[in-house]
Amino acid sequence: MYFNLPPIYTRQLVGVWWTLPIEFSFYLLLPLMGLVVYKIGAIWFSLLSLILTIGYKLYIVQILQIPSEYLATILGQLPGVFFTFSLGFVSAYLVFKNKLEICSKYLYLIIPVTIIWIAVLLNTPDYWTGSPLIYFWMSVNDVLFMLIILAIYRSKSNYINFKFFIWLGKISYGIYLWHLPVILLFKDKLTTFSSLLAVTVPLTLLLASLSYYFIEKKFSKLKF
Description:
Helix content is about 75%, strand content about 0%. The chain is an all-alpha fold and about 220 residues long. It is globular and about 45 Å long. The two termini are about 25 Å apart.
């Protein structure tokens, strides 16, 4: 639960696992978040989450003046990405309440705006060293992607109902956990990208499947 935080900067065993304590912390807050949404509604909850996220980033950058080489790590802690998690929570709430009309109605505008917004970041070389985008770029991007995902969900497209895609969705967390260890295992043994891809993709899918069917699926059925 203390990965990459000062003054120790403990390192995780595998680079991509830095998100695990952040996710765990979020799940601890989830019951409280449900209560807040029930009391004040999804819109006000989203606004409070946004204020918390931007306020945390302002505090880290402006008040503590953390050096730029540490910003990515520290801003990526839960307060800095709370709005991202909250939008996922709110998305599930909107699906449950069947309030997705606005998403599909403006999809033809949302996709190009998202592409342009990403291009803005790619053309901002001082993002970590002084650009004001550091406070709100990700939050805007989160909203755009949320709208796109909800619009695709509401469309009930046959493409998202393919059994292969559904299976990938089920094992996706295992793919996240396993892909880098597998790559690190073979990256020095395989000299070309195509050979690395040919070996690591099937092995990652196999390990992710084993994780899902023998660990995740069984634990998800437990009732406490």
